[in-house]
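Lab notebook, design round three. We kept the backbone fixed and only want residue identities now. Task for the bench partner: fill in a sequence for the structure below.
Input structure tokens:
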């Protein structure tokens, strides 16, 4: 990442997680991988930190005190495209689907290995810093994939896809 003057700065990851042990573990791994990290422990704190801390990516737990993760996600997406990786509990498929529909970039299911978090963060950052034409609308043959709007059309005809199917398709289209 670069600042306004074009200087290279450390990529800042905001970790939102009320479980202090998990937060610390994720933080340690991200720190060691060369990221700058900060932590918010509840939904209200998360919104303040997302606004004022100017993070490059947010790792967002879904089960949070004060304001749940989906609520935080919805609120952030109203004014920012900051990449967001959500953490969901095993079995909470609804959280994952709603999260992706609300604009989360990826999800990790608990319990996870901290290495997986680092790998996902890296992958999402790589995608989000790709050139604009790659992350806005992709054209593959007669297929048009509108990523921000999560819409797919073949020869101009819209195709109904679930959020998961859309993610799969986008991933495959990126690596033909
Ligand atoms: Ca939690």
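Proposed sequence:
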């Amino acid at each position: 990442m670069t600042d306004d003057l074009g200087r290279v700065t450390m990529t800042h990851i905001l970790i939102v997680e009320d479980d202090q042990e998990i937060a610390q573990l994720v933080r340690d791994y991200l720190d060691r991988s060369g990221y700058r990290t900060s932590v918010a422990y509840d939904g209200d704190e998360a919104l303040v930190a997302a606004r004022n801390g100017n993070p490059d990516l947010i790792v967002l737990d879904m089960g949070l005190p004060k304001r749940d993760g989906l609520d935080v996600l919805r609120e952030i997406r109203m004014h920012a495209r900051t990449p967001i990786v959500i953490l969901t509990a095993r079995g909470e498929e609804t959280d994952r689907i709603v999260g992706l529909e609300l604009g989360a970039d990826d999800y990790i299911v608990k319990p996870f290995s901290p290495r997986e978090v680092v790998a996902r963060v890296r992958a999402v950052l790589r995608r989000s810093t790709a050139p604009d034409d790659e992350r806005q609308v992709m054209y593959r043959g007669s297929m048009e994939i509108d990523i921000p709007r999560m819409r797919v059309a073949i020869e101009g005809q819209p195709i109904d896809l679930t959020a998961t199917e859309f993610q799969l398709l986008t991933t495959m289209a990126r690596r033909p």
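Keep this in mind before ordering anything: The mean pLDDT is 88.
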